[in-house]
């Protein structure tokens, strides 16, 4: 009945608990990393000719370049992406004024639809 509660101090009580928790978590992480290592990239089929494709987030630009070959490639690789980014940056200013919210939603929707359509066309 006469037991007194011992106050825990940061050093060495809490510090030792933290170090043990870190070591246990590190061991679990190392074991999982050794058991389930990730595969490296896509599997290569050497029987087919090489056809490079960009990652999914650049597929829309890859498809856009197909529509503007040769000397008009500047339009597809620079002009349209720059206009798209400028439109995204200007959405807060488009949102002001009369029917601004509808104009901003329309601008964002058009850009999103353009991204989705061009990405899906490049996959197909």
Give your account of this protein's structure.
By secondary structure, the chain is an all-alpha fold. It has 4 helices and no strands. α2 (59-67) packs across α3 (73-94) and α2 (59-67) crosses α4 (100-123). The relative contact order is 0.08. The mean pLDDT is 88.
Can you summarize this structure?
The chain has 4 helices and no strands. The longest helix is centred in the first third of the chain and has 26 residues.
Annotation, overall tally of beta strands: 0
Report how far apart the termini are: 78 Å
Approximate shape: flat
Cα gyration radius (Å): 28 Å
How are helices and strands ordered from N to C? HHHH
Number of continuous helical runs: 4
Low-confidence residue ranges: none
Given helix and strand content, the structural type is mainly alpha
The averaged pLDDT comes out at 88
Largest sheet: none
Labels describing this entry:
mainly alpha
Question: What's the arrangement of secondary structure elements?
Answer:
Elements: H1 10-35, H2 59-67, H3 73-94, H4 100-123
Helix pairs in contact: 2-3, 2-4, 3-4
